[in-house]
Sequence to fold (227 residues):
Amino acid sequence: DILLTQSPAILSVSPGERVSFSCRASQNIGTSIHWYQQRTNGSPRLLIKYASESISGIPSRFSGSGSGTDFTLSINSVESEDIADYYCQQSNSWPTYTFGGGTKLEIK
Amino acid sequence: DVQLVESGGDLVQPGGSRKLSCAASGFTFSNFGMHWVRQAPEKGLEWVAYISSGSSIIYYADTLKGRFTISRDNPKNTLFLQMTSLRSDDTAMYYCARSGYGSSEMDYWGQGTSVTVSS
Fold:
């Protein structure tokens, strides 16, 4: 099974700062990684697909990068509405998927 | 607009069964694969099951050990999850999610339906 490790568990940043979330896969998965945002009491929302492809309707401050085993989601200039949990998900083993454990974003 | 609306969640006794539904609208349901994903209280997301657009491909998370069955009714635009032999660790919010067209991300999610397994 492909395991995804997200780090750190919690990130605390000030508004306007740039923040990066890490997701590491247990084996090479190419670019088969997707990122989701989940606000408190909300449903997950797709932010980035295939490591770096943007999604219609998602603010341009969200971007993704990486390939192989190491992936990064970045938010350029964090806003208060970005307070949420962020999850990576791999689809290399389609149609069986796994999610990372998530990273919680806090605003100072 | 794409809408996915789950229903059927409730308090269930250990060992009991429950069938969840997900009503889809705003897109051609029969063209898309669908997933169930769950989230235990204060925990992360866990993929549960996938069904292809025509039901020919079905997969489950290994941890379910045959207790859950995913199905769909395309003419009625509805996805189902039949859950049996329920245990306390099945307590979770259950989400349905659409698979991208010809793609593997989950591009739309429902609001979830809550299942609590307790005596």
Notes: Chain B has a mean pLDDT of 97. Chain B touches chain A through 26 residues (CB under 8 Å).
